[in-house]
Amino acid sequence: MALVPSTDLDRLRDPLTAWLRDRWTEAADTAVTGIDVPGSAGFSNETLMVEVTGTVAGTERTLQLVVRLQQSGPGLFPSYRLDQQWDILEALHRDGVVPVPRPLWREDDPGVLGAPFYAMERVQGRAALDDPPYTAAGWFIDLEPGDRATVILNGLDTMARVHATDLDRYDLSSLRRPGIGDPLDREIAYYEQFYAWAAQGRLHPTVEGALTWIREHRPTDSEPVVLCWGDARPANLLVREDLSVAAVLDWEMATLASPLLDLGWWVFMQRHHTDGYGIPAPHGLPDRDKTIAHYRRVSGHDTTAIDYYEAFAALRGAIIMLRLATMMIESGILPDDADLLYNNPGSRILAELTGQPPPAGAGLTGHIGRG
User: For the purposes of burial, counting CB atoms within 10 Å of the CB of 239, is it exposed (0-12), middle (13-18) or buried (19 or more)?
Assistant: First the structure.
């Protein structure tokens, strides 16, 4: 579900056309012939699907673009670094190991479309969507069980390739969270701050208890530091008809941390889309143990601490859902006392994984102790 887009698409057509004429220099008569907002767009960004035509060497050509804009106000995350996403796309596209959309042009001047943005080539493929969950409906369910397994295992293979990115070759140091301590300390601190910002003074007992659990149970062994996708799940993969991965999407949550940060998120999200919704796992969907074993085999990374990172993923998910529910209340989609703020599939899983009672619903009182 997406917020009603605030962008006036007709207003953007002329300035976008002029901007593209200055960049698609080999084309004449460049024109934006289509501009739309994807129905599956999320709350974390503004995305435009743009069709552009032009004449190259006497032949009419068409470009299918995806334009991503810097969020114009408070959004799903405390900050939104469009430049970091661009840097990741450039590095991975140049490396050629992880399939990503080809980054074409970037604009830092907000005067063109009202916010900085970049344009990338649109990749053809299907994503296993969250709404409705891919575990219940859609093309993924229509596959044979063996093909379902292939889609998931191909996704895990691709995630392992993300983690194998040579950080000495590409400067992605801006992804490192600020603060003191090792990468895990910084991730925990970031989500504590995220929670305080998202809750707007509300007390979320399940999240509070989980933050204490995460601090007390954190792994003490040294861990590898890799490029983490951040939002590692099937919904952020474009899949070809032959079930291979055409592109990895959505780098808003990318960071430099343990590879188990991504694996934990993948495992948590699969649990969220099955147990969390009371949906039986579709035949062919690799279970938790098979998922972890496959990733360990193809990546070579130790997965001993995966239980911890699954709980940390559930905490991250609960904090993001708290912010998302707040945005839905502010936009009039939900009432002020919406139960979703506290009691949702993610928070219920979080409570189970951190040994807490199931979360209660709306009506909780109190204030957050962290700032």
Answer: buried
